[in-house]
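Hi, here's the filled form for the chain we discussed.

Project: internal
Contact: R.S.
Residues: 460
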Amino acid sequence: MNIKTRSWAEPYKMKMVELLKMTTKPQRIKAIKEAGFNTFLLKSEDVYIDLLTDSGTNSMSDRQWGALMIGDEAYAGSKSYYKMESAIQKNYGYKYIIPTHQGRAAENILSKILIKKGDIVPGNMYFTTTRLHQELAGGTFEDIIIDEAHDPSNEHPFKGNVDLAKLEKLVKKYGAKKIAYISLATNVNLAGGQPISMANLKELRAYTKKHQIRIIHDMTRVAENAYFIQQREKDYEKKSIREIVFEICSLTDGATMSAKKDALVNIGGFMATNEWDVFEEARNLVVVYEGLHTYGGLAGRDMEAIALGIAESLDDNHQHARVGQVEYLGKKMQDYGIPIVKPIGGHGIFVDARAMLPHLTQDEFPAQTLAAEIFIDSGVRTMERGIVSAGRKSNGKNYYPPLELVRFTIPRRVYTQAHMDVIAESAAAVYQRRKTIKGLKMIYEPKYLRFFQAKFEKLK
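And the returned structure, exactly as it came back:
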């Protein structure tokens, strides 16, 4: 037998399992109605396979669990903080570190320091919490991602790239001094987990140096971005994930990170900067909002786990298996004819709800509808990334994003290939009856980040 290609398997084995509750379809219909057709409001015990997010839902390693036992819970000067600080400096290269309880806390502090009322914050597609903190600080987000990112079917290998012509237009219109910073995400979440290329980042760095504009890096999924650079970009195929991540960070001035994603922990984050003055102000603000600057809302055990998780996330075998599982699910869905964002991204599959439910207008919430239907079919919990997530403008009108997506987010080191088969088959079953699906209307809307708590009911 001539074996041309070899299968890969996960670079870990299981020592413990969590038993799941199996439900019937009538039970799931009752649960989603009680949740107002919002998957965020479902009780986790009613969920079979949970793809709501990859944030804090990953499996930690035995080394990380062991590290919890040696966490230094000192209020001030915890040695666990210095371990985390050292891991960030060694692997990412940033000089000064502020721990926070998660990424959005870092965004809050950073926004208060760097944004003045009337400032412009260009970025390669918005993210929900990031844009809200920028707006609350008085800034205005401007999208400068390449146009291909807004086309689900476009196969551009680096749809996270910045369009330098769009940035130049903003600089000419407002002046460089009105640009608070470039908000740069690696592996852009709302574009479908799409990476930025090293070549594009180098061009952006050259431009910002010329105009004296900071680049602030949302590095939540930087290791996944590095994997795509390694696989797709010339001259990087022989470099390690670790080396590529370090180079990405070296081309930026500071960062915010939710360690709950790439760093494989259940809670935690940080803000990093190479500027002493920014660090000094952040060190003051973290005491106001989070805790002392050597714990920032985290227990010592959490910081121990983050320090190890950072190192584990940069392992080439880990990233190959992590993204490989996502690719496996994406290809299964494509085999069933389900429209997804192409190319397949790093942390999940994004189904194009607009293409799957073309009979629903965006005001009938096709992505929210589809997420609810997937849950009813199989107990698989996904989430909406469309008009509900986009929220409202300052004038009260809805944003109408070009992308109306349902995100099937894969937690790291949690599910098996068999789970991926179940997920794909459920999506296919809903796809077969797509023409019979009716939309939703919103009956409750909170003031901020409505996708978390909004409630809906079925249209007649």
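Let me know if anything looks off before we file it.
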